[in-house]
Design goal:
This protein is 81% helix and 0% strand. The chain is mainly α. The longest helix has 54 residues, at 39-92. The two termini are 48 Å apart.
């Protein structure tokens, strides 16, 4: 059930976290105004606040590192997949007909469907259709490889052709796996909870000081933390957010295959 948060538009969890954090700041401020602490208690509360802020910063830093590295993995995978497809397409030109046309047609269909799956991936039915079509294209590709190897049993051809086709198939499976590999929802909930608690502690500190709410300071602090959380979640949602994986290498491969 918790995975439903990955079906929401990115603005929904971010706005929810911001509103909860601002509400917690206001509640913390009121509690701090009502419960004035002594000097000794303030030292203890300051230590607790410092530790909590450090924990939130640590959690945000780890989350940012994990999701940004995963985004880099997805970007690198696009380049690796484009290189594998281009290599397989070129090596398919070494075999005789009809295997040559079968392999090259399968690769062209695969790339077209691969780009469609990225563009229309938010539609579950459309994504299922493109995935099934890609699998059919890969099956046709392997059938063409098998036919070429059986027709011409040269060792050099087998060594050149089979690994290239295997790379295309393996990278396709890796991409499908990475598509559903997100930061665990429990970590997202923990991150949101830490941000809200942090907002409450900032509000408590302002209320305890008794110098007014300092709306600009509290709002700026909450916005800063939520903006970092936004980037973390955006990295983790390559199709829903503002930060998208560049598909240019695959587009260029498709154009080169159409022109040859």
């Amino acid at each position: 059930m918790m995975h439903i948060i990955y079906d929401w538009p990115l603005g929904v969890p971010i706005l929810l976290i911001l509103l909860l954090s601002l509400s917690a700041t206001e509640l913390g401020y009121r509690y701090g105004r009502a419960q004035r602490a002594s000097e000794s208690e303030r030292d203890i509360l300051g230590t607790i606040r410092t530790g909590t802020l450090g924990l939130v910063a640590l959690l945000l830093g780890f989350s940012f590192a994990i999701t940004s590295n995963r985004f880099n993995d997805r970007s690198r995978l696009v380049m690796d997949e484009a290189n594998a497809i281009g290599t397989c397409y070129l090596r398919a030109g070494l075999v005789a007909e009809p295997a040559r046309s079968q392999m090259r047609d399968a690769l062209r269909r695969y790339v077209d469907l691969r780009l469609q799956s990225y563009e229309r991936g938010l539609d579950a039915q459309e994504f299922t259709r493109t995935v099934n079509g890609m699998q059919t294209a890969l099956d046709d590709l392997w059938a063409g490889v098998a036919a070429a190897v059986q027709a011409d049993r040269q060792q050099a051809l087998t060594v050149a052709l089979v690994p290239a086709a295997n790379d295309v198939i393996d990278l396709s499976a890796t991409r499908l796996w990475l598509r559903g590999f997100h930061m665990p929802p429990a970590v997202v909930v923990l991150l949101a909870l830490c941000i809200v608690i942090c907002g409450a502690m900032i509000g408590h500190a302002l209320g305890e000081a008794g110098q007014g709410r300092h709306l600009g300071l509290s709002l700026g602090f909450n916005l800063l933390i939520v903006m970092v959380a936004f980037v973390v979640l955006d990295f983790d949602r390559p199709r829903r957010g503002l930060i998208r994986v560049d598909q240019t290498p695959l587009v260029q491969v498709r154009e080169s295959m159409r022109s040859s």
